[in-house]
Amino acid sequence: MPRIEENARDENFWHAIAERYDMAPGPVNLENGYFGRMTRGVAQDYQRNIDFINRNNSVHVRQQFDGPQNIEIRNQLAGMLGVAHASIALTRCASDALQSLIGNYKNLQPGDQLLISDLEYPSVESAMRWVAQHRGLEIIEIVHQHPATHDALVASYREAFERHPRIKLMALTHVTHRTGLVLPVQAIVEAANAHGVDVVLDGAHALGQIEFDLPALGVAFAGYNLHKWVGGPLTLGFMYIDPRRLADIAPDMGSQRYPEPDIRTRAPYGTVNIAAWLTLPKVLQEHKALGGARAKGERLNYLRELWVSEARKMPGVEVLTPDDPRLQCAISALRFTGLEDQKPMADRLLEDYNLFTVVRDGSACGSCIRITVGLSTSLDDINRLIRALRELSCNPL
């Protein structure tokens, strides 16, 4: 196999990768950020595991999965991340992990402040506001400049820490779901740590498409998905807690399922999708064989750049995601200038060009159309998108 990370433009290779995915006829999916497709091999393994658990039921689960099998799967995941297995607890998704981390963070007193920005995922923002309301805390919200720059993003947090010395906990999104903006996490965390601020990192869209060293990021608390860019079945996520900081997160709802010094007490308790977790070793094997986040990221960024570079030339179209390679990934967003609501244009992309996208609102830059390429996206798909944007830019509503 060639070195994939050096072959982002090798269409023959990536066509063969795309052939591993089964796709129904219909619109071209440019909304790959919601969740990822499983490869055919992963889907088949998942179905075998569904059948296996259905046949063996609690006998296998009680004797194997709840004991050594669960631990072995967790160890494999920890190995991929380069962290201790004791720092990971399996969850259904990143939102579950993040809400538990925020809700059970112990080091808060009435009058303390929590920091959020206009880029947070709704479930993270709502969790921070809920905690503030119920514990007598103050919410500090910053609105990032648009267009964003690396230095301005870092400066906005440094300024917030200096202006609000009572900030104790902050949410930070690695990749915002609205525009695909990648935040300079390590620099922001360094500034937070210097001011005694703990960070809860939302890594939902980062894992699998962005190369990063989790311990080097400096965060103590994070939540991730495995069903987006890693390629697992739905309902796979996990919580990360630096083992040195475990005592700062209370057991979820007073959980006593495991001994107190076990991170698994910090995750929401419930019956997990066992078949999905049994499929994870196959998922991790394929992810590694493909070249991991480095290979995936280079291919996805190459596809992104093809349409973005053309869209930037079009009158009446504004690409909202910066071109700074440190701040971009597979997810990018645009808007047709002069239109407050972008949904009619997203509808036209679907109805007139058979291109499925999604509208996102909430950040300071306003309503936008999010476009997310995937590993099954072809050059024909990209060219269709470019043609559609060019024609729509000349004929807006």
Automatic annotation (TrEMBL):
Domain of life of the source: Bacteria
Keywords recorded for this protein, A-Z: Aminotransferase, Pyridoxal phosphate, Transferase
SUPFAM superfamilies from the UniProt entry: PLP-dependent transferases (SSF53383)
Keyword Transferase assigned: yes
Coiled-coil ranges from the UniProt annotation: none
Keyword Transferase: yes
Domain Aminotransferase class V: 58-385
MF (Gene Ontology): transaminase activity
InterPro entries reported in the protein's UniProt record: Aminotrans_V_dom (IPR000192), PyrdxlP-dep_Trfase (IPR015424), PyrdxlP-dep_Trfase_major (IPR015421), PyrdxlP-dep_Trfase_small (IPR015422)
Pfam families: Aminotran_5
Protein name: Class V aminotransferase
